[in-house]
Design brief:
The complex is a heterotrimer of chains A (148), B (494) and C (323).
Chain A: H1 3-25, H2 34-53, H3 58-61, H4 70-90, H5 92-106, H6 112-133
Helix pairs in contact in A: 1-2, 4-5, 5-6
Chain B: H1 2-11, H2 14-32, H3 38-49, H4 54-78, H5 88-99, H6 103-138, H7 141-158, H8 163-176, E1 180-181, E2 188-189, H9 203-220, H10 231-235, H11 244-266, H12 272-286, H13 298-322, H14 328-338, H15 353-381, H16 389-408, H17 411-429, H18 434-458, H19 469-493
Helix pairs in contact in B: 1-15, 2-3, 2-4, 2-15, 3-4, 3-14, 4-5, 4-6, 4-13, 4-14, 4-15, 5-6, 5-13, 6-11, 6-13, 6-15, 7-12, 7-18, 7-19, 8-18, 9-16, 9-17, 9-18, 11-12, 11-13, 12-13, 13-14, 16-17
Chain C: H1 2-20, E1 32-36, H2 43-59, E2 63-67, H3 74-81, E3 89-95, H4 97-104, E4 116-132, H5 140-149, E5 155-158, H6 164-176, E6 181-184, H7 188-196, E7 202-206, H8 207-216, E8 219-224, E9 249-257, H9 262-277, H10 279-287, E10 292-296, H11 297-317
Parallel strand pairs in C: 1-2, 1-3, 5-6, 5-7
Antiparallel strand pairs in C: 3-9, 4-7, 4-8, 4-9, 4-10
Classes of the chains: A mainly alpha (148), B mainly alpha (494), C alpha/beta (323).
Chain lengths: 148, 494, 323
């Protein structure tokens, strides 16, 4: 997919999205309609302009950013999503070292021992700063009643 | 005058100095951690202040406030993860400098600029707080409407490298800003029935997602490498502090930004980011080499940092003199004052003058303290940029999760930050700037609410914007901000 | 059928559990969590933290305030309604807001009033109608006369459609037969700034937030919506004194999730009664201009029920949000 095609796809998606948003906004109460409609209309206009101008965008042609490594991106995404869904049931102080270890092992390719050491030390530091010093509320999960 | 002296002597006691030092260090750390903001810092300190004397508690709150705003610049520069909207403009030039191995120099400039801005605004607070508070009152809904437009115009100007993408991002942000419970009609807009969205798309999760989480992804993906661009940058030692010549060159910008920051700070609800971006834009406009901005220009860091620290003193002016908080942080401040029986208002400068001046002088000292600590520590902190990206990435991610959760005790916000992290990652790759999007999310509600309020007051008479002197002045500024860059471009073509 | 069967089974299981658990003689034996639906440093939070400190002294256990903010308080109250019923979660509730959501947000509401067991009302903060010191209106009569002479010309602030200030101003308007131009603000601070700056004509808000400005003389209160004059602002006449019998207030009290053990409830209630009678506590709230109006136990339950019913009737008569 070329950058121009990609930009056109983004613009088309946003236009579709804005038109639905305008349609929904027409049902809002009173003058609550005005802003969503105006802003979505402006977004549509800007995107229409982009559809036309994308072909002339010479910078896009010579885009030099390195291609996204989808394989590694996918690993990261899965780990992050697991982090999110497990943080509350298990507790952050179980999930943080697990997440750290996994990323350090599978993405940074550190040795098992190094990855484990960094993960544990970092979690301990986070625990001291956030739990003991700042008393920041965090999901305790399984550790509820043990750490506080 | 007695009260001033009492205030001065109150600050220079062993106990007060200890509290100041602890507050400053805590504030710097909270500000510097990606995901933790100054609002959060002050809110964390509030429960502790309950058991303290009024003087000590105000000193602690003040120290945490000013130093956390400064602390935000450290991560904005070194990691490109601004913890608050105040430091977004700082990251624009600070991060390219850090990537080129000049992180310590940028940190030094940020420290000096913050110090200048902070001290300037405290002097303003001491000298002319009560008369200046009238400025805050002169701004009605009409003026805030125009001010929000002014802010939007300058921000889109900042991303001139690809204006169309900037405009798309800005309108997308303005549109998303309409999500939530509509306070004017009581109706729900695009909330999908989720009560977490009733107050709108929460700003800090969006900010943390777009900047911190996306940066965490960017750092984790490459097989090797990190923040520093190449081996050359790795080998270059860079300066520990900015050169004297650079400081002298930026002095005018710092003073100008301090004035802008103090004025915007006085306006309740206008927001630190407006001050930082207006100053940044102004610095670029008057610079001899505007094309360097956004690519690593020390002057850009200076403009943004002196402005956002000047806001701290500015926001305290309406807070202390009128009891009207200038932003979320000072709203928490008012809680801290009232708990000790001091209701903000003119009485603070008469009945409780000694306590009030203690606070003001402690702000002064806190500014100097973080300045000294920052200048000394800069050359050590900068080593964080040498940590491989694969290790920094998951750490930033962890801080972001904890920081977002702690804001409202809510996993929904964490999910939102994660989603915005993915969006931000692709926006950066595909050259859609995140800054206008976030600023639009902040300014959108200010624009809409004040516009509708103006319409309620005037019974939908649009001329209300053109019949008020202050509003006209602001409209002229907006026009200038639009026309000037166009003129400049034509001049450079000719 | 299946559903009701399930209910019976669950109830039986729960009953067995309760019977098996030892009596809570030592309650509380660990820190008690106090959910506050508004942010740290706000006026609700400030009161909650003071109250928590005194409760801790009474019961010898920490009362830890947890701010669960958002959706005008609904998020915090949903959290309270769903908290464990072991007596270690209590919460601060704001009336009439908490009773109004099940009516105004009927489609999406996440709690119902019978999920709470009210413990004690602590503060009842009456509404005031105020104007700037340089305003031509000296009394409520001036205000009403001006509004009659030129309907919809006087701008009055309130903090959101359907809130207690909005309802108070609406009630006044209907009793006096006037029409005013409502301007919505996001909080007391913005509204006060607009009033002092002359951008609006009048301000409808709560006494505790306006008392300092009133006693300093920068704003003038035309009426306070209570049945008697308030000691904090003794010179301000009530609405009834001036012929408009409007009663409106924002209350802050404590509630627990319905179904907590009876002895835990009684322990909390006794402690709370001691706190509101404590002179030191009263002095701290007096500093905040918050009038203490203790309504304990069953009285508080019926107070909230009455208020809920009144709101329901009012809504049925004239929904203040256009549907």
């Amino acid at each position: 997919m070329t950058p121009i095609l990609r930009d056109r796809l983004i613009a088309s998606t946003l236009i579709l999205f804005s038109l639905i948003a305008i349609w929904v906004a027409l049902g809002f109460r009173g003058d609550g309609t005005v802003f969503p409609v105006v802003m979505a209309a402006c977004l549509t206009a800007a995107c229409l302009f982009k559809l036309v101008a994308a072909g002339k965008d010479s910078d896009a042609e010579k885009e030099t950013l390195e291609a996204i490594d989808w394989h590694r991106f996918l690993i990261w995404a899965v780990l992050a999503i697991l982090f999110y869904f497990l943080a509350e049931p298990l507790g952050v102080y179980i999930v943080i070292p697990a997440f750290m270890f996994a990323v350090l092992r599978f993405l940074a390719h550190l040795k098992v021992s190094t990855a484990a050491l960094i993960a544990i030390l970092f979690t301990a530091a986070v625990f001291i700063v956030f739990e003991l010093l700042l008393e920041v509320p965090t999901p305790a999960g399984l550790l509820d009643g043990i750490i506080r | 005058m007695d009260a001033v002296l009492v205030g001065l002597t109150n600050v220079f006691t062993l106990q007060a100095m200890t509290v100041l030092l602890i507050g400053t260090l805590a504030g710097m750390i909270i500000g510097a951690l990606p995901g933790l903001s100054s609002t959060m810092g002050v809110a964390l300190v509030i429960p502790i202040t309950f058991s303290m004397s009024p003087e000590s508690s105000l000193i602690l709150l003040g120290a945490v406030y000013v130093s956390s705003v400064y602390g935000g610049s450290v991560t904005a520069i070194l990691l490109r993860t601004p913890g608050t909207d105040a430091s977004i403009a700082t990251a624009l030039d600070g991060y390219p400098l850090a990537a080129a191995g000049r992180g310590a120099e940028a940190l030094g400039m940020a420290t000096i600029a913050s110090l200048v801005g902070g001290v300037f605004s405290v002097v303003v607070l001491i000298a002319i707080a009560p008369p200046l508070s009238k400025v805050a009152l002169a701004f009605g809904p009409q003026e805030y409407t125009i001010l929000a437009i002014f802010g939007m115009v300058t921000i889109v100007g900042v991303v001139s490298e690809n204006p169309l993408n900037g405009i798309i991002a800005a309108f997308a942000g303005l549109f998303l800003a309409t999500v939530g419970l509509d306070n004017f009609t009581g109706g729900q807009r695009y909330t999908l029935g989720m009560r977490e969205l009733f107050d709108g798309v929460p700003l800090l999760p969006a900010l943390i997602g777009l900047f911190s989480v996306s940066q965490a992804i960017s750092l984790s993906l490459p097989r090797s490498g990190g923040i520093l661009e190449d081996d050359g940058a790795l080998a270059a030692k860079g300066r520990d502090l900015p050169a004297w010549l650079d400081l002298r060159r930026c002095f005018r910008t710092m003073m100008k930004s301090s004035v802008i920051g103090s004025i915007v700070g006085i306006l309740p609800g206008a927001g630190t980011s407006i001050a930082a971006f207006i100053s940044y834009n102004e610095a670029r406009r008057t610079s001899k080499n505007p094309e360097n901005f956004g690519k690593g220009e020390l002057e850009g860091v200076a403009a943004s940092e002196s402005a956002n620290n000047a806001v701290t003193g500015g926001t305290l002016i309406p807070t202390l003199t009128l009891g009207i908080p200038g932003n979320a942080v000072t709203a928490v401040f008012i809680g801290g004052l009232t708990i000790h029986g001091m209701i903000p208002g003119p009485k603070l400068f008469t009945d409780f003058a000694d306590v009030t001046y203690t606070l003001i002088f402690s702000l002064f000292v806190a500014n100097i303290l973080f300045g000294v600590i920052g200048l000394f520590a800069g050359k050590y902190i900068v080593h964080v940029t040498r940590v491989p990206g694969g290790i920094l990435g998951p750490m930033i991610m962890t801080f972001s999760v904890i920081g977002t959760y702690a804001l409202r005790n809510n996993m929904f916000d964490v999910g939102l930050a994660l989603a915005f992290g993915f969006i931000g990652f692709f926006m950066e790759r595909w050259r859609y700037p995140a800054a206008p999007f976030v600023i639009a999310l902040i300014l959108g509600p200010i624009l809409e609410v004040n516009f509708r309020r103006s319409m309620q007051i005037s019974n939908w008479d649009m001329t209300t914007f053109f019949t008020r002197p202050l509003s006209l002045v602001l409209i002229a500024l907006v026009a200038a901000a639009i026309i000037y860059p166009v003129m400049q471009r034509q001049k450079s073509r000719a | 059928m299946l559903k009701s069967m399930k209910k019976v089974v669950t109830a039986a299981a729960l009953g067995a559990l309760v019977a098996a658990s030892p009596a809570l003689a030592d309650y509380p034996e660990k820190p008690v969590k106090m959910i506050v639906a508004f942010g740290a440093g706000g006026s609700t939070d400030t009161m909650a933290r003071i109250f928590a400190n005194y409760m801790a002294e009474e019961l010898g256990q920490r009362f830890v305030v947890e701010n669960r903010t958002g959706a005008g308080g609904e998020i915090g109250w949903v959290a309270l309604a769903g908290s464990p019923t072991d007596g270690y979660s209590i919460g601060l509730i704001n009336s009439p807001v908490i009773e109004s959501y099940p009516i105004t947000r009927a489609d999406t509401i996440g709690y119902s009033m019978d999920q709470f067991r009210p413990l004690i009302n602590v503060v009842t903060d009456p509404g005031v109608l105020a104007v700037a010191a340089d305003s031509p209106y000296q009394t409520l009569a001036d205000f009403v006369a001006a509004a009659k002479a030129d309907p919809n010309s006087i701008t009055v602030s309130h903090e959101g459609v359907g809130g207690d200030d909005h309802l108070a101003a609406l009630t006044l308007a209907s009793k006096a037969g006037i029409e005013v131009n409502f301007v919505s603000f996001d909080g007391n601070a913005e509204a006060t700034a607009a009033l002092l700056g002359g951008h609006i004509d009048a301000f409808e808000g709560n006494m505790s937030e306006a008392a300092a400005q009133i006693s300093e003389g920068t704003v003038r209160a035309l009426a306070v919506w209570s049945s008697e004059r308030m000691t904090q602002i003794p010179d301000v006449p009530t609405g009834a004194e001036q012929g408009y019998d409007v009663i409106s207030a924002a209350s802050r009290g404590i509630a627990v999730p319905a179904g907590i053990p009876e002895d835990a409830y009684q322990t909390l209630l006794a402690a709370a009664n001691n706190v509101v009678a404590d002179e030191a506590f009263q002095a701290e709230l007096a500093n905040l201009n918050m009038p203490i109006v203790p309504i304990a136990g069953d009285d508080f339950v019926s107070y909230l029920n009455n208020s809920h019913e009144t709101l329901k009737e009012l809504w049925a008569e004239n929904p203040w949000l256009e549907q």
